[in-house]
Write a structure and sequence with these properties.
Mean pLDDT: 75
Distance between the termini: 149 Å
Strand order of the largest sheet: 1-2
Strand content: 5-15%
Helix content: 25-40%
Shape: rod-shaped
Length: 176
Amino acid sequence: MPSGPHPLLAQIPLTVSPFISLPSAPTLPYTYKPLPSTLPPSATADGNGNEREKIVVSQSGHAASPEDIIASCQALQDHIQKLHEDAERTIREWEDNLREEELAEKRRVAPGWLDREEKILQPAKVAAGSSVDGQGQSANIMDQQTEDSSGATMQQPVPTREGDELDRAFGSMGMR
């Protein structure tokens, strides 16, 4: 072992500065208690006392193992799934409540209407060939000839527009 300074270090001049002071030993308070010789198990150790390796370190200085990160992500995913299911259940309940309120309102306006099979009255459909007779002329109820009680046929007068509308609404009535 060499007893003298290293040859390269010997070439560097040292200066003493009045502005730099070397640190001094701290004085301990009278209430100072030394740490126990055995420490409790570490929070980062697994059940066997083996310390888990902290591979991932964040910028804030928090370190975690991949198993901790996976467990945290799984817990977050479970929590989000639970919130999603709760939200869907709430929406279904709200929609069911709206349907029930609408049904109650309809029953209040028209009691018994929703409890029957016949919902809407629709007119009977007329086939395309039945509106025109065999000679190609329009078959109008008012244009038909009627027989009176004596057996004589008589031509009915051609109705006006108002008459057509009344006949469509109420049906035609024969002359007596």
